[in-house]
Amino acid sequence: MALPVLPILALGVLVVALARPQRHWQEQRVQADAVDIALAIDVSPSMLSRDFNPDRLSVALEVAERFVRKRANDRIGVVIFSAEAFTLCPLTTDRELVQELLKDVQVGRLEDGTAIGMGLATAVNRLKDSPSKGKVIVLLTDGENNAGYITPRMAAEMAQLFGIRVYAIGIGTTGIVLSPVARNPDGTYQYAPRQTSFDTALLEEIAAMTKGKFYRAWTEKELEDIYDEIDQLERTRIEVSVVHQTADYFSQLLLFVLAILGLEVMLRWAGLRSITQ
């Protein structure tokens, strides 16, 4: 029964093969030139001042989290500082880890004071060996440098040496602000109206030395706009190339035809052999 069918099947497959069936598709290959970003965040007691709701630090951390969420292709690290500096998170592409660590940042874990130079220098140390073409520090503080053995200018010179751009953000209002004035035995703070001051010239100098930019955030909305601008200025360069692919099935179908014809020959030979016996 199979013998009469096989030549017909072979002919049908041959016709299909001569029609040169093909499959076309395309692949997108993405190449990202990522940016390495270190967030250097002031965690001195003055960051608990209540001219922001609920305070400066809480708002700064929330806005930083949203910024991190948008940087899909970059490595991000976090440095916190008061009178001393600490690397909370080295450079990583794990955005969820960075966001979780930011949520746990608190005032009081480091010695009180504001060592802007130490915070900036620690962030520079995180970035200096990076092979990335884009190296950025977002420095956020609300006060004047009053601690640390590395001056802000020395730290800015280090950033300049390693080609690191610094975006310096001054957060908070000036004048009389409800701020921490003493720490209770349980670690909480006592608040009272206090005159606050701000060293705008210092942050402007740091930004200018490193070819970055200085920003002043008086409100949460202004801080959000600042991070949005930095996000746009430091966009990761992504190259998408489209590769067209074609698969030709002629040779496979021709082999199938030959296989069918071979099977037919074998079956005919086996049938003739059985008759002669």
Give a description of the structure:
41% of the residues lie in helices and 30% in strands. A six-stranded mixed β-sheet has the order 4-3-2-5-6-9, sandwiched between helices. A two-stranded antiparallel sheet has the order 1-10. It has 277 residues and is an alpha/beta fold. Helix 5 links the parallel strand 5 (134-141) and strand 6 (165-171). The longest helix has 27 residues, at 250-276. It has eight helices and ten strands. The chain folds into two domains: 2-22 and 250-276; 31-238, von Willebrand factor, type A domain (Rossmann fold, 3-Layer(aba) Sandwich). The mean pLDDT is 86. Helix 4 runs parallel beside helix 5 (152-161). The two termini are 21 Å apart.
Write a concise synopsis of the structure shown:
With 277 residues, the protein is of the alpha/beta class. The chain has helices at 2-18, 56-70, 95-103, 116-127, 152-161, 200-209, 220-233, 250-276; strands at 22-33, 35-42, 75-81, 85-92, 134-141, 165-171, 175-183, 189-196, 213-217, 237-248. The strands form three sheets. Strands 4-3-2-5-6-9 form a six-stranded mixed sheet, sandwiched between helices.
